[in-house]
Each structure stands twice: as C-alpha cells, then as structure tokens.
Write a structure and sequence with these properties.
CATH class of the largest domain in chain A: Alpha Beta
Number of helices of chain B: 11
Distance between the termini of chain B: 31 Å
Number of strands of chain B: 8
CATH superfamily of the largest domain in chain B: Ethanolamine ammonia-lyase light chain (EutC)
Oligomer: heterodimer
Radius of gyration of chain B: 22 Å
CATH class of the largest domain in chain B: Alpha Beta
Strand content of chain B: 5-15%
Strand order of the largest sheet of chain A: 7-6-5-12
Helix content of chain A: 40-55%
Structural class of chain A: alpha/beta
Number of helices of chain A: 22
CATH superfamily of the largest domain in chain A: Aldolase class I
Shape of chain B: globular
Number of domains of chain B: 2
CATH topology of the largest domain in chain B: Rossmann fold
C-alpha cells in the first residue's frame, strides 16, 4: 500500500495516508479525536507522527489543502489572503525548524508581527503539536495583539475581563446585581457581555439598552455585547438599538458555520453595520467571536480533521473581521471532546498560542462542566498559565457559577488573584476609572476599597421594595 | 438556596471572620433578587473560607449527581406508588457499558444495547400501537430522574386525563447510560406515535437535580435535534411539575394536530416561552 508519509522505527514501519491523518495522529491525546476516530492508535505512533510532521516543509500547507479549496470558503480565505511576502523569511523552514525559530532570539515581537500574514492556521496547528506547554506560553507571550473600542485591550502587563452577568430568566434586577458585583470587584474592561436566556431580537434589544444605560450613567470606559446570533444583532442595529459589539460563535469549516446559520458575507455585513454606528471612542474593533475545539465535530463538519486543526482554522475567520475580542470557550463543550483538566489546560494553551501567532486578540473562557473530570484547581492552573502567557482577557462571573449556562468559569476574585500574583492590570482607561470611582483604595497593589463607592451606594437605595416607584 | 442548607452558613461565619481580615460586601442583600453568587466578601482579593467551602460542597453534589448510578428498583417502586401502571416498567441499557464510556462516547448512549434491541424487536409484533411512549433516562443526573419522575408523571397523568384526546400509553421504559436520542429508537420499536424522553440534565452547581423533557413526533433512529422539542429545568426550585406538564401537553396536542415536532412547532409556541423579564426596573440607573 502506498502511503504519502512513512517512516521506520526499529522493526516497525509507520505510514500516514495523507496530511490530515498525519496532523491528527501527531496531536496530543484528547477524547474528541478519539470520538472522531482520528487519534493515534498508540503513544509511539503519536510521537512518530510528530517526528514525520517535524520534517515537513511549512510550504506544504500552501499546496496541500486539508479541506478542498473548491468546497470550503474558509480554505479559500486562507489561501487567497496568504501574503507570500510576509511568508518569505520563514518559507524555507520545516515545521520542526519553525518551532526552533519561534523560540529563538531572532523571533522578536516585531519580527513575529511582520510574518503574521504569511502564517496560515494549519502551520500554527502543526507546530503547536510539536510544542510543550512552556513553548506555547513563551512564544504566545511574544505575540502582542492590541485592539480598541472604548478602551485598549491586549497591552503588555494587562489582563482584562469580560463581566458575564447571566441570569436564567434575564431578570433585570438579577442582571444589574451581578453587574454591580463585578464592577465593584474591578471586572468588565474587556466587555460587559450577557448570554440571553431568551434568544430573540426583542429580548436582546432590552438587554443592550440595560447595559448601555449603565455604561453611560457611570461613564465606564468599556463596551457591551449581547451574545445572540449575528442576524439578531443586525436586526437590532436596524431598529436603532445601542450595539457596541457584534457577537458570533464561529468554527473552522464552512459547513460548521453553515450549521451555525451564517457565512463570511454575513460577518462582513455585520462588521460594516456596527462600524457605521461609530460608537467606539478609542478604536473601531467591533466584533466579538467565540470558538472552541470540538465544535466542527459536534456539527459533523470536521472533514476528518483533528479538532485542534479545525479550531485554528476558525482564527482565519476571526482575523478577517478585526475583532476586539476572540474567546476560546475551552471547557464548555464537555468531556466527550476534552475529557479532563489536563486536556482542557493543554487545549487552552494551544488555542491561545495559535490565535496570538495569527494576530487574533485571544482571550479564554477558563471553564469546565460538572460532567468533566476537572475542578477549581485545574482552572487555577490554566488561569495562571494563561496569565503568564499574556492572554488578553478571561471571564468574570460571581463566584465562578454561571447560573444560566450551568458551568463554572473564572470569578471576579480569580481575576484579581491573577492580577495580584502576576503583577497584571486592567486596561489603562478602565484602570483610571476604577481609581476615580474609588472602587480601589490603591489600584497599584490591587487593594479594594472597604466601603461601597458613593455613586453605587446611592443606587443601592433604589432597590425594588426599598424605594418609591419611579418610572 | 444552597447556603441555607450548608453546615457553615454565612450568618455564623461572617462576624467571627472579621478579625481574620474578611471584608463583607454590604450589597450581599441583593442575593434576594438572584441565585448568582454575588456579594461573597473577600479575604484580601480571595474567597473567604466558608464561601470557598460552600462552593466545594455544591461542586461535590453536582459531581456525585453525574456519577451516582440510577437505582432502578427504587424508581420503579416510586412509579408504582404514584401511578397505576398496567405493566411494570421495562429496564433497558444503552451501548455504553459504564459511566466512563458513557461520558466519552455520546454515540453509544444514543443506541440500545444489542440485547435490549433484540428483546424489543421480538415483542414488536405483540405491541399495540400507542400515542405516547414514556422513556425515563438517567442522562447526566440520576438524581434528577430519581426525584422528579414520579411527581412529574403524576402531573402529566392528570393533564392527559383531562384532555379531549385519548392518549394510549406504551409501557414505560427506564434506560441506563442513555442520551436523548435513544428515545427515538425505543419509541419506534414500541410502535408509538410520539415519544417523551425524561432525562437527567447536565447538573449545574446550584441545580444538580434538573430534569429535561424531550418530545419527538414519529420517532425513528437517526433524527436530529431539530426534530425535538425541549422543556428544561424541571425541578422543585425551577419549573414545577404542574407547569411542565401543562407546557408538554400543549406541545403534544400541537404535534398531534400537525403531525410533526421540533423547530417548526417551536416557532408557533415561542410566545409562550417568552415570559421574559420579571422585574423591569434597573436599580443601577434609577434616579
């Protein structure tokens, strides 16, 4: 039998029939690849695949499309937008050389930025499969991706948070209570973002107004987002709703996105519509994307690829539309895709690395579900590792418990832990606001005020049942 | 909810902790308006000990709910007591042989074991056509199934009895290590026009006991999610069994009338689902 890639180890001959199989078998073990039937059959086969992959020229990925060009608009996006000039300095490298080069002193932040447009998602996925966790951290730390809307996210030494005030019935008082809690713990500079319980246009507009009023009244240098379908947000914009960011879950194949109910043209339309509102004050990044390994397989749209390669391809979609935030929701999908804390942590670091190398403003929903073999200690580990790696943002939720989506993510307290332990700060504009509002006594040492700041103390007097019936 | 049931409640813990550097949050009173874990207070920037332990207890309960096996004998007894069943419930197994396999192989959980499939096939000729097959599945929380099945079926029984349609029921089945789609295979083998799957949902930290209801018209193997209708969060502190039974009956009647289920049905009943926003005043922006 002819095999495209083969090698001999001792008396055993290994063969891999195509690039997709080689990539899948070189991938560190995870349950989703086992479910898809693409995982290496032994530990030895995995390392052999990595060795074969290491010898492969990077340029292979420009000639051997993992999903056919004719069948998939994301492959077309990757190939058509590839910048040969930017690729030139690394075009002679193999995947194994590429790892060395990324880690080398030659690859400064400036150099990494200059080759970005020449790197494809498949190249990042391939090299990540050869990298240890510390490699993923060290290289990601060199890749800075800065974006802006009403504040500036992704600067060195900063860690931002999405304030996620979800409520199982979208109750206004319940949501406002979680927003207050978050703000008073210094959360919300990446975005105040609600997953609506009732997902339709009318409800989304209500929630957009709610957040817009809070942002305006307290003059918070941040942005809001309702995480509803892109077509709902487009309708909301037409109705004149105060839309800061447009949300969409995205995947790495055209068929995945079709199952999500959109294509690249929809995203282009959405970006233009949100930009036309001119609501940003310091920047024009208006998109918020979420991704996660396993989404393509879950939609039966993975084309025989491993889930990490599919995930990296989603970042090609993201970077096309200049997002403010891209969030890999790493542990949400469940143990059939990432079984335990170890697999979740590895995937989180891979996603962050691949995204950053491609120039995507990566954040991470450091999270798990109750049927995964994971706990708070695993989340502490991943949060710390991502903090070291220079992750742009993480989630913030009261007490780690999302009472609407039924999973656990990082809390307001967790973000302050990371900032304090690693010497990280909020986005500069937001940091100044936290100090001005006297939410912190000493912002430099992350020392919170012991008292409720005056502006918020006044609002607490307006609690239902405690005030007269205005409006 | 959970804090009142824990050995160390916030009431006895907060005062004594002040000496140890715990800062309470005055806005903790807002917990009257939400189950979110707000106003937890802090030791430095970290969780106070008793709040940390409350969380750990809730997580332990949720994990136990995932791994606790279904007690079929106890469930059968509770169903016998609550309902007058003509035939004893039939216990079935999926292709997932244990919990570890179940968690990693959703495809196995969607299909009956060969043995049970053959059993139902052998009986198929003697199985009278029915209007509804009730399939109870452990899913991700046996606890949810154990606690809510009998009360819900009692409520459903009453709702069906009052309906103008006659609802002939297939024998009740109970499935171990099952996922939602296994109901389609069972419903088809039982010659039922519709199937109701009652399944333990993925446990939330504050809701380890949540039951999900999934209804399919004309069940058969291989149907996708868009052919099912779902009613979620059935539990004492969530959607109560009477409301859930009422909602389900509406869906069943409409499915029967239109001979379909899933997305097309959902579109028309959406008004019912949009109960939306309970309170409308945002205290943060009230002047």
């Amino acid at each position: 039998m002819t095999r495209a890639y083969h090698t001999q180890v001792g008396s055993r001959r290994y063969g891999f029939s195509n690039l997709a199989e080689l990539m899948a078998k070189a991938t560190p073990a995870r349950s989703g690849d086992r479910l898809a039937g693409v995982m290496a059959e032994s530990a030895e086969e995995r390392v052999v695949a990595q060795m074969v992959l290491a010898e492969l020229p990077l340029s292979t990925f420009l000639n051997d499309a993992l999903v056919p060009y004719e069948d998939d608009e994301i492959t077309r996006l990757i190939i058509d937008d590839h910048d040969a000039g930017a690729f030139a300095p690394i075009s002679h490298l193999t995947v194994g050389d590429f790892r060395n080069w990324l880690l080398s002193d030659q690859a400064t932040p400036e150099v990494l930025q200059s080759v970005r447009a020449g790197i494809t998602p498949e190249m990042t996925a391939a090299v990540s499969k050869l990298m240890r966790n510390q490699d993923l951290i060290l290289v990601a730390k060199k890749c800075r991706v800065v974006t802006a809307f009403r504040n500036t996210i992704g600067l060195g030494g900063r860690l931002s948070t999405r304030l996620q005030p979800n409520h199982p019935t979208d109750d206004v008082t319940g949501i406002a209570a979680s927003i207050l809690d978050g703000l008073l713990y210094g959360s919300g500079d990446a975005v105040i973002g609600i997953n609506p319980a009732t997902d339709n246009v009318a409800q989304s507009v209500k929630l957009m107004r709610l957040m817009d009023e809070v942002i305006q009244k307290y003059e918070i240098p941040t942005q809001s987002c309702v995480l509803t379908h892109v077509t709902n947000t487009l309708e909301a914009i037409e109705q004149g709703a105060p839309v800061d960011l447009v949300f969409q879950s995205i995947g790495g194949t055209e068929a995945t996105n079709k199952s999500f109910g959109f294509d690249l043209a929809t995203l282009a339309e959405a970006e233009a519509a949100a930009q036309s509102l001119n609501r940003g004050t310091v920047g024009r990044n208006v998109m918020y994307f979420e991704t996660g390994q396993g989404s393509a397989l879950s939609a039966d749209a993975h084309h025989g690829l491993d889930q990490q390669t599919c995930e990296a391809r989603a970042y090609a979609v993201a970077r096309k539309f200049n997002p403010l935030l891209v969030n890999t929701v790493v542990g949400f999908i469940g143990p059939e895709y990432l079984f335990d804390g170890k697999e979740i942590i590895r995937a989180g670091l891979e996603d962050h690395f691949c995204g950053k190398l491609l120039g995507v403003p990566m954040g991470c929903d450091v999270c798990y579900t109750n049927h995964a073999q994971a706990d708070q200690n695993d989340m502490d580990n991943l949060l710390t590792l991502l903090g070291v790696a220079g992750c742009n943002f993480v989630m913030g939720i009261p007490g780690s418990d999302d009472i609407m989506l039924n999973y656990q993510t990082t809390s307001f307290h967790d973000a302050l832990y990371a900032r304090r332990a690693l010497g990280l700060k909020a986005a500069p504009e937001f940091e100044q606001w936290l100090a001005r509002m006297q939410i912190f006594d000493d912002i430099d040492t992350h020392r919170l005020s012991e008292h409720v700041p005056r502006a918020f103390a006044q609002s607490l007097r307006h609690l239902p049942g405690e005030a007269s019936h205005e409006q | 909810m959970s804090s009142d049931h824990t050995p160390m409640s916030s009431r006895n813990a907060s005062n004594e902790s002040r000496d140890a550097g715990v800062v309470d949050n005055p806005w903790a009173t807002l917990r009257a308006f939400t189950d979110a874990r707000i106003g937890l207070g802090r030791a430095g920037v970290s969780l106070p000990t008793h709040k940390l332990l409350e969380f750990q207890l809730a997580h332990a309960q949720a994990q136990d709910a995932v791994h606790c096996p279904l007690d079929i004998e106890a469930l059968t007894a509770s169903l016998d007591e609550a309902l007058e069943l003509d035939t004893a419930p039939l216990a079935l197994k999926s292709r997932a042989t244990d919990r570890a396999t179940y968690l990693q192989r959703p495809d196995y959980g969607r299909r009956l074991s060969d043995e049970d499939r053959e059993r139902l096939e052998a009986q198929a000729d003697n199985t009278e056509p029915s209007d509804l097959a009730i399939v109870i599945v452990d899913g991700l929380s046996a606890l949810a199934v154990q606690q809510n099945s009998a009360p819900f079926l009692t409520a459903l029984d009453q709702a069906l009895a009052k309906d103008t349609n006659d609802w002939r029921l297939a024998p009740v089945t109970i499935v171990e290590q099952g996922r939602v789609a296994i109901g389609d295979e069972i419903g088809a083998l039982l010659n039922a026009r519709a199937v109701l799957v009652m399944i333990g949902e993925r446990p939330g930290l504050s809701s380890p006991d949540s039951l999900g209801l999934y209804m399919t018209w004309a069940p058969e193997v291989g149907l996708r999610d868009d052919r099912r209708n779902c009613i979620s969060n059935v539990r004492p502190a969530g959607l109560d069994v009477d409301q859930a039974a009422r909602k389900l009956l509406l869906l069943l009647k409409e499915a029967r009338e239109r001979q379909l289920s899933g997305v097309k049905l959902k579109d028309r009943s959406e008004d019912d689902v949009v109960e939306g926003i309970g309170s409308t005043r945002n205290f943060l922006v009230a002047d």
